[in-house]
Design brief:
Elements: E1 11-13, H1 18-28, E2 33-36, E3 42-46, H2 48-56, E4 70-71, E5 76-77, E6 85-90, E7 96-101, H3 102-105, H4 119-129, H5 137-150, E8 154-158, H6 161-171, E9 179-183, H7 189-196, E10 200-204, H8 215-221, E11 226-229, H9 241-251, E12 254-258, E13 266-267, E14 270-271, E15 278-282, E16 295-299, H10 302-312, H11 335-346, H12 348-366, E17 372-373, E18 381-382, E19 388-392, H13 394-397, H14 401-410, E20 416-417, H15 438-446, E21 447-450, H16 458-480
Parallel strand pairs: 1-2, 9-10, 9-11, 11-12, 12-15
Antiparallel strand pairs: 2-3, 3-4, 5-6, 6-7, 8-16, 13-14, 13-18, 15-16, 17-19, 19-21, 20-21
Helix pairs in contact: 1-16, 4-11, 5-11, 6-7, 6-10, 12-16
Length: 484
């Protein structure tokens, strides 16, 4: 974690050049610098607005800060929509020794759960009735409520989203000798579970617009050994399911949707995860609904769902306790986790509505910045915006993804990079073949996810966007300021 901005990163001298002031503003991400005289006493402030005005008046990068600064106010206010004052803390000689701002009070997390519903009530019921393990009424209720909410035919609750994928593969008979086509841009669980099932993953490139598995690349990768396609609805954006299902029908393949990040997302009116032969969901603490850890796998076919239930519980015959029909696993969800899940499902519509509001507010601010690519708005695709992710164009903005993330961290804003390409990581290189991954590479190395929790306030979104806009404004000044 990068340390917050220090007072030294906020101070420039009146005798310094505008070039030095621009560099200070670029590093500190606060949007203001405290100007001191040669004794170190505060004499003014300077920000992007003052510098821009001076440059428009004909000044150059070698002009002195004293010529552009504002006189020292009681509080220097950062020019961001939702930000409060940035206050210098002075010693008895008038020298800045620290600063105070609203931005220091709370680090804005990239994700956090909202547990404001019936979670405590339902968990307390588990405790008072002693049903705290995988036996108990909330497990079945969670499965039933989830199926009803998503339109799934059969839902099986499991201990996490990764085992949901593994169970889906096994229940549908995917294993040794089979190939499963997976996208290059995804979390490692997608490919890991294929390997765990004994099958061979085949990595293909993604679409540049949706950021999901490319149907054309998928078609080109199909061989006589191909058994399944595993699309991922990345960051809540639905994949092109019509094209993928048509491919599957043509080649007699199964489709297992990795919808870990896509509860609430829909493709042409149908909930993601319910269009293929199976779909999987994650309820990790950063997901739209959470059980702490937990997952769900849904099936089109009753027989596959029944096998999944058996495999989830050590391969035990449900009609004959402790009689095992096949080698299984302990993939069960606890009653306590399911109780939290039931409470979370009750709030899903409200969570989704807030996610859409957050995305719209980000769009309103960030669409004004040339060089940022926002999530595509596609016909028939209802994005749940699990993570609001954007692509940063280094050449046009003068600031790359990683440098932007570092500066946002200094402003107490947590971000996360887009997933690394699977084909570049040591365990998976053998599954890349000689296929092209140009689009994944571009998206991976330039993608950044902004804070997207439903707990995020409008003021925090405005603050985040203001910091981003200001950083790029400063970068533009650095490039375009006259040298004189």
């Amino acid at each position: 974690m990068i340390a917050p901005v220090t007072i030294d990163e906020l101070v420039v001298r009146a005798s310094d050049t505008l070039e030095a002031a621009i560099a200070t503003l670029d590093r500190n991400a606060v949007g203001v610098a405290f100007v001191v005289d040669d004794s170190g006493a505060l004499v003014g402030t300077i920000g992007p607005g003052e510098i821009a005005a001076k440059l428009r008046a004909g000044a150059g990068r070698k002009t002195r800060v004293a010529a552009a600064m504002s006189s020292a106010p009681a509080a220097a206010r950062a020019a961001t929509p939702g930000d409060g004052a940035v206050l210098p803390v002075l010693d008895d000689r008038g020298r800045p020794i620290d600063y105070a701002s609203a931005g220091r009070a709370r680090r804005i997390p990239v994700a956090e759960p909202s547990l404001a519903g019936n979670e405590l009530r339902y968990v307390s019921e588990c405790v008072t009735t002693s049903w705290i393990s995988s036996q108990g009424p909330f497990v079945r209720r969670f499965e039933q409520d989830f199926a009803a909410k998503t339109g799934a035919r059969h839902a099986v609750a499991v201990s996490n989203g990764t085992v949901a994928l593994h169970l889906a593969l096994l229940a549908l008979g995917v294993g040794l000798g089979d190939e499963v086509i997976v996208p290059d841009l995804t979390f490692a669980a997608t490919i890991n579970t294929v390997i765990h099932a004994g099958a061979t993953p085949v990595i293909v490139d993604v679409d540049r617009t949706s950021w999901n598995i490319d149907p054309w690349a998928t078609a080109a990768a199909i061989t006589p050994r191909t058994r399944a396609i595993m699309p991922v609805h990345l960051y809540g954006q639905p994949a092109d399911m019509d094209a993928l299902l048509a491919l599957a029908d043509r080649h007699n393949l199964v489709v297992i949707e990795d919808a870990a990040e896509a509860i609430g997302a829909a493709y042409k009116g149908r909930h993601c995860g319910t269009l293929g032969h199976a779909g999987t969901f994650s309820f990790f603490s950063n997901k739209l609904i959470t059980t702490g850890e937990g997952g769900m796998v849904v099936f089109r076919d009753a027989e596959a769902a029944e096998r999944a239930r058996r495999l989830r519980d050590h391969g035990m015959d449900p009609a004959r306790r402790y009689w095992h029909l096949e080698v299984g696993y302990n993939y069960r969800l606890t009653n306590v986790q399911a109780a939290i899940g039931c409470a979370q499902l009750e709030q899903l519509d409200r969570f989704l509505a807030r996610k859409l509001e957050i995305a719209e507010r980000y769009r309103r601010h960030l669409s004004q910045i040339e060089g940022i690519t926002l999530p595509a708005l596609l016909d028939g695709h209802a994005n749940s915006y699990w993570a609001f992710t954007m692509i940063v164009d280094l050449d046009r903005l003068g600031l790359g993804r990683d440098a932007l993330a570092d500066r946002l961290e200094k402003a107490r804003i947590e971000t996360r990079p887009a997933f690394y390409p699977l084909h570049e990581m040591p365990p998976y290189r053998a599954y890349a073949g000689n296929r092209d991954f140009t689009r994944t590479n571009w998206l991976s190395w330039n993608g950044i996810s902004l804070p997207s929790a439903v707990t995020l306030s409008d003021e925090e979104i405005d603050y985040i966007c203001g910091v981003i806009a200001r950083l790029f404004e400063v970068r533009l000044m650095a490039r375009e300021a006259p040298s004189a």
